[in-house]
Amino acid sequence: MASLNSEFRLAIYSIQPLQPMRFSLLLSLLFPLVALSQPDAQPPHDLALRVDNPGDSITHAVLGVYSRVVHLRGVQMSLFTSAARNKSRGVQLSGLANFGQTRFGGVQAAALFNYTHRLHGMQLSPLANLNLYRASGLQLSGLTNLTNDGRHLVQIALSNIALTSFRGVQLGLANYVGSLRGVQIGMFNLANDHNHGGVQIGLLNATEDTTSIKIGLINLTPQTHTQLMMWTGNTTSSNLAARFLNGRFYTLIGLGAYYHGLSDRFSGSLFYRVGLRQPVMQKWYVTTDIGFIHIEDTEDTNPDTLHRMFGFQAHVGIEWMLHPKCSLFTTTGWNITRHYTRYDRFDHKPLFELGLLLF
């Protein structure tokens, strides 16, 4: 090692194969946690230009191929990996990954992933950001963000995970928290809650907390009653749907086949409804709902018939409970169908449905 007895040191180490200590240096190039686990008495193994305080272990600036410091109070830049052993604050910039063994305050930015025990700042990477204990600030990643505990934390990625409690905002395709006291916005939101509140906005929202606010197409709690519906009607001949009943409110999503008024070829529909189910007497219920329907038609030579259309429906119905697991229902209402491209009206007519409800 060549060392200058001043604030500036250039530490260069040669790596010899088949020697255990030198082999650990090779591993530390890609996995700095190997080097972090070595005793403090050993000199730092890196290939970098360093600016240190004389007489202590604080490093203010590092520029190199790969680097490891004890305490960072400044900027650490490495071509491959940067690692800080003890409590640090500043900026870590690396071509592969950044590592913080204890608390890190500041910014970690890497081309692959960032890792720290406790975060108070920002982690930025295209692959993953990992935090072992508590994090506050921002985790921004292209693939996933993971922390054990989030306090005043914003997570933005395809998937965001907080294993225990979380206060902040999760924005992604799929979000999960152990205990939610914040906001989840995504396609799929899951919270294993116990009366801690929170807000979920997405396609599918699921939580054990019945007090949380859920805004989505499908909302699930332990009290959600899931039912299977089958019916026929004058708009589509065969229909199959799942209804998610939460108290008196419900959402319904399903499929239909052979939409009437189109060609004799196969046609289908996908529909979604939201409504209210109100008891009127023993074993009798009145339902009201509104919904959206998407219609697909096979190729037709009729120029007035387009392959894709949409519609809006309103229903009023009656349910008769034959058995706790089986009911008959009938509905009536109004259907309006339009073309997607031209937006002119294809048809509008009353609708009638008769079917069976299970579970």
What does this 3D model show about the protein?
The strands form two sheets. This protein has an eight-stranded antiparallel β-barrel. A five-stranded parallel beta barrel has the order 3-4-6-7-5. A hairpin with a 2-residue loop joins strand 18 and strand 19. The N terminus is likely disordered. It has 359 residues and is mostly beta strands. The protein contains two helices and 22 strands. The radius of gyration is 30 Å and the shape is elongated.
Could you provide a short overview of the structure?
By secondary structure, the chain is mainly beta. Helix content is 4%, strand content 69%.
Which descriptor suits the 3D outline?
Answer: elongated
End-to-end separation? 76 Å
Radius of gyration: 30 Å
Helical amount: under 10%
